[in-house]
Amino acid sequence: FPYSFLVKTPLSQLATFTLAGGAAVVAWSQQRGGKWPRIKADLYRLTPLLALFGVYWVVSIQTHLNIGHRHILPTYPVLFIAAGLLWRAGGSRLLATLAVFLVLGNAVESATVRPSYLAYFNPLAGGPANGWRHLVDSSLDWGQDLPRLATWLRQEAKPGERVYVSYAGSDDFRYEGIRAQELASVYNFNQPREWYELEPGLYCLSATALQNVYSGWRGPWTLGKERSMLAYRSMLAEAPPPQTAAERKVRADRLFNLDQLRFVRLCNYLRIRQPDAMVGYSFLIYRLSGAEVHAAAYGTMNEFAAIMDQAIRAKAKTP
Q1: φ, ψ for residue 228 (rounded to 5)?
Q2: Can you give the pLDDT at residue 37?
Q3: Which residues pair with 158 in a beta bridge?
Q4: For a Cys-Cys bond, which of 38, 103, 139, 277 suits 285, CB 3.0-4.6 Å?
Q5: pTM: predicted TM-score of the whole model, two decimal places
Q6: Contact in structure between 164 and 204 (CB atoms under 8 Å)
Q7: SS3 helix, strand, coil % of the chain, rounded to 5?
Q8: Is residue 23 very low, low, confident or very high in pLDDT (cuts 50, 70, 90)?
Q9: Dihedral of the CA atoms 216, 219, 224, 225 (nearest 10)?
Q10: What number of other Cβ atoms are within 10 A of residue 133's Cβ?
Q11: Which H or E element spans position 149?
Q12: Burial level of 202, CB count in 10 A (0-12/13-18/19+)?
């Protein structure tokens, strides 16, 4: 949560909170007749707000429910009230002037990210275009850009180009008119999943799916995962057609794990490769060639290492 606060709070607000705290310290230090009585009196008046702020932050940091910046939003009003120190009767004109500019700066920051407010990340995190590298789920990607993805595909997809979608929201992309093959999404709406081979085309991944947040196989690609993927492929290729419900369930579980493993392997490559486009900062679009798909999803470990190295070199050359 402290990290989330640092990268999701607009710089103008961070500057405002810092300046207000500094103004309070300066005012206390300049108090005649002893500063401690003034400090105690001010803190006493602020006790309800300080209690809310302190208790909420302590509980937030200790809890395991840390899946979104939204969980610490109730602490912001306390900071906004404290920021009122910058504009008060008898206060410094310089601080009041700075407060005006900071308010205008906050409006500008808001306008630049409109309408993708959920995807806002400040320049300390590289801006909203790099937000997916820091936080996902409800801090960035709650499925809000699916209609915009449909519009983008209508405008940018080439005739006959295959489209793959991995979507972490609770909607169904088919309702938006998107004709695509579903990749390993978080929700599959109880639709039957059959095995299919990946081909060249447009790969549209929501940020939460790209980071494999809800996958049991998430994390760096390891030799152990490679062996598991090969084992599942071998078992499915050698097993006879299922005859009973139990056999069909075993096959479905193996297909699910193989699908997840293949997707995690592909995502390890895509997280390094620069996307060809972004939609609303929550969908990353990759136009992959046949060679890329083969090396990233099916190739040997040497082929996978080679394409990863190529992506790293290309990223290093990117300004």
Answers
A1: -65, -40
A2: 75
A3: none
A4: 277
A5: 0.88
A6: yes
A7: 60, 5, 35
A8: confident
A9: 60
A10: 14
A11: helix 146-156
A12: buried
